[in-house]
Write a structure and sequence with these properties.
binds fe (ii) ion, mainly alpha, globular, Ferritin
């Protein structure tokens, strides 16, 4: 398999990932309590739509079609984000979970763009490099903004804990939590560290 084919696969993966995020980001925006965090998700949705268009341009330049691969990794990361949206938590604690999930999506994208940019550079595909770097810059910027939002929101979450320390009944475990708990033990056992 030639490097260009590996690159096309990477790019199709990214294309699928970005399309999945166009569907997922409105849910994060809807769920967020903090107005700035909410707006941040909305802004990144618009950026993500232009990232999809830039990736289409990359494919046009290469004379290939963008579809053909579903990004399983992003599906998994988004699934974890959906779990955060189901948490029964106070405002800032809930938002803290969303920030954790969103940071994972950004860094997953960042890793993908780093690899694709390096491959494109190696192949001398300058137009692709420029377009991919524009997408990468937006992901890096979004991750920074999420971290900045986290600083304030995590702090607020610790205050919520103090307020309702005594008033919370122990929450019941869902079936999915039990499965997750069992699997995590299997992970540990298989690793054997
Ligand atoms: Fe993106
Ligand atoms: Fe992103």
């Amino acid at each position: 398999m030639a490097l260009i084919d590996v690159l096309i696969d990477e790019l199709r993966d990214l294309y699928s990932a970005e399309n999945q995020l166009v569907k997922a980001l409105p849910k994060l925006a809807k769920g967020a309590n903090d107005p700035e965090l909410k707006q941040g998700f909305k802004d990144h949705l618009e950026e993500t739509k232009s990232q999809v268009l830039r990736l289409r341009q990359v494919f046009e330049g290469l004379g290939k079609k963008p579809t053909g691969k579903h990004c399983e990794g992003m599906e998994g990361v988004i699934k974890e984000g959906a779990e955060a949206l189901e948490e029964d938590a106070e405002n800032a604690s809930f938002d803290s979970g969303l920030i954790g999930a969103a940071l994972r999506t950004e860094h997953y994208e960042i890793a993908g763009y780093h690899a694709a940019i390096m491959m494109s550079k190696t192949l001398g595909l300058n137009e692709a490099v420029g377009l991919l770097q524009a997408n990468l810059a937006e992901e890096v910027n979004t991750a920074k903004k999420l971290q900045a939002a986290g600083k304030l929101i995590f702090k607020a979450a610790t205050q919520e804990e103090e307020e309702d320390k005594d008033s919370q009944p122990a929450s019941k475990k869902k079936a999915s939590d039990k499965t997750s708990e069992r699997k995590s033990k299997e992970d540990e056992k298989k690793a054997g560290v």
